[in-house]
Design a protein that fits this description.
There is one protein chain. This protein is of the alpha+beta class. It contains 22 helices and 17 strands. The strands form 6 sheets. Strands 3-2-4-14-7 form a 5-stranded mixed β-sheet. A 4-stranded mixed β-sheet has the order 9-12-8-13. A two-stranded antiparallel ribbon has the order 1-17. β5 and β6 form a beta hairpin. The chain is globular, with a radius of gyration of 23 Å. It holds the Pfam family SBP_bac_8.
Length: about 550
């Protein structure tokens, strides 16, 4: 499932060629290979699963019976009174490393001026210096680093970027270390917290028959329509639209340019499931039909064009690919936008200390025609941490030990330090026993170490009512998850197909924003088919046949 603008092509091009490909619309498809394997056949490569005996959630989740679809792990409304240490010795051996990670929010001070980073590194026993890049433009920064041959020891790359990267199937071998010799089966025993990650997440960390990255497990859902619940309640706006028309009318009611308020960010990716566009492919009459080829896609384009034409979407979003919708949302300049559920927590952490009334919600899922909705699902891992290729064995082992520390789950001392900093300095416990960042914590603490290790995904927010609302939304939405033809199959996309995604969707974006006529959609699909879409269809049909699904 893809949810962010991407970057293409890591290797097989000179640095000069890569530098010339910095703009997504100019990049060309690559030629790397594509493979597919049923996830259950990849278990021999993954760590032996050993559950960590920690605290149990008090908000029940949903156990998934859908192949390849993660569980809803549940959540917590109370913070453990006495978190226990997960590790009995230092993770690090005094090494010093750099780690590139995204952040969808204001960056904190660097290591030299950040007591939070210094405290965490002291506990780890090694120095991790973060090279934080804006998540909205992360792809461009990453490709520039790769083009310059400036790959840090640890590099985080989200799956939604990888899915759009031509030649990643080749790049992953050239740029990053094969972790199979370190983590396969019982070899993972020294890294008990990594072994606690779900097997399904590790299966999605395999490329070219090798275990290449440490996964960040996902919740089932790639995104939701988040809204400013405090503003909705103050103004009496509808918090449960049940059709595309109701959402459109809500947008008209909310938008008031004189008050510097617009209803929406660019919500087109959430409009896909609203209009029942298939997540990627639909198997119909024994043939694969791509989402771009469906009548539902055409309806979605026309509806989104109406939102842009009637200026219900903030003008900064309309005029730019890189508008920071989180900032606009936090400022009340837009009140509905599409984001992952993690954005809910992130925004609360950033803004409730200075605005206690700041409150968010997520619209219940609905279909454009008021009928039964569908919702997309994630694969079992959504972000990967890679280790730079060619490091000495001892450094690879130290880095894995650091990632193991970062994977400490909710209810442990390591988790507390990673997420909130030092008690009494970066955070205090409020009357309910919930961690609340201090002024210093708000300035210095950023979600950084959490990206590196992944961890079982409980809704472990320091906001009990929001955590409850989130788990309820997930449980209520789970029955509407759309089954896809490839559920449970680990597919490495054909490079031509990956390379087509960004330039093709840029063309559709031009239609939505009124820069091209709606009638151009057929021509765009024809170009997509010619330039690799039909070739990809043949590959995906073979995957279905090889797995007995066609």
């Amino acid at each position: 499932m893809t949810t962010r603008r991407g970057f293409l092509g890591l290797v097989g091009m000179s640095a000069l060629a890569l530098a010339g490909c910095a703009t997504p619309s100019t990049r060309k498809p690559g030629s790397g290979g594509a493979t597919a394997a049923a996830a259950d056949k990849l278990k021999t490569l993954t760590p032996t699963y050993v559950p960590f005996a920690g605290v149990k959630p008090d908000l029940p989740g949903t156990v998934s019976t859908l192949p390849g679809v993660p569980d809803i792990s549940g959540g917590f409304t109370r913070y453990p009174a006495s978190p226990a240490a997960a590790l009995t010795q230092k993770a690090g051996k005094g090494g010093s490393y750099k780690a590139m990670t995204p952040l969808w929010g204001p960056p904190p001070p660097g290591l030299a001026g950040n007591s939070y980073f210094q405290a965490v590194n002291a506990d780890i026993g090694a120095t991790v210096e973060f090279q934080i890049s804006d998540g909205t433009t992360y792809a461009d920064k990453a490709i520039a680093r790769l083009a310059a041959g400036d790959v840090p020891e640890l590099m985080v790359i989200p799956s939604w970027e990888i899915e759009k990267m031509a030649d990643f199937n080749t790049a992953v071998d050239k740029a990053f270390e094969d972790l199979t010799p370190y983590l396969q089966g019982d070899k993972a025993k020294p890294y008990a917290l990594l072994a606690n990650l779900p097997t399904a997440a590790w299966q999605w960390s395999v490329w070219n028959g090798k275990l290449m990255g440490v996964p960040y497990p996902t919740e089932p859902f790639p995104f939701a329509l988040l809204y400013r619940k405090d503003e909705f309640e103050k103004n009496g706006w509808n918090q449960s639209p049940k059709s595309a028309e109701e959402l459109y009318q809500l947008g008209k009611e909310i938008t008031d340019p004189k008050a510097r308020r617009w209803a929406f960010g660019d919500i087109h990716e959430m409009a896909w499931p609203i209009f029942k566009v298939p997540q990627e492919w639909r198997l119909e009459g024994g043939k694969l039909v791509h989402k771009y080829e469906t009548p539902e896609w055409q309806l979605m384009l026309e509806w989104m064009r109406k939102l842009f034409a009637e200026e219900l979407i903030h003008p900064d979003v309309t005029s730019s690919k890189g508008a920071n919708e989180k900032e606009l949302f936090a400022a009340g300049k837009i009140v509905v936008y599409r984001d992952g559920l993690g954005g809910w927590k992130e925004l609360l952490q950033q803004h409730t200390p200075k605005n206690p009334s700041f409150e968010l919600g997520a619209f219940p899922v609905f279909a454009h025609d008021g009928g039964t909705p569908i919702m997309y699902h994630n694969n079992a891992a959504g972000i990967f941490t890679f280790i730079r290729k060619g490091l000495p064995k001892a450094q690879v082992e130290e880095l894995l030990s650091i990632l193991n520390w970062c994977a400490a789950p909710y209810g442990t001392k390591e988790y507390e330090l990673s997420n909130f900093g030092v008690r009494g300095k970066h955070f205090e416990l409020d009357a309910a026993g919930t961690p609340k960042l201090t002024e210093l914590g708000t300035k210095e603490v950023a979600y950084t170490y959490g990206f590196l290790g992944g961890r079982p995904l409980y809704v472990d927010w320091p906001f009990p009512e929001a955590a409850k609302a989130n788990v309820e939304w997930q449980n209520a939405t789970f029955p509407f998850i759309e089954k896809t033809p490839f559920d449970g199959i680990r597919v490495q996309r054909p490079s031509k197909y990956s390379g087509l995604q960004v330039p093709t969707e840029d063309k559709f974006t031009d239609i939505m924003r009124g820069r091209r006529p709606v009638g151009d959609a057929k021509q765009i699909v024809t170009e997509w088919k010619r330039d690799g879409g039909d070739e990809a269809r043949e590959f995906y049909m073979k995957v279905l046949r090889d797995n007995g699904r066609a």
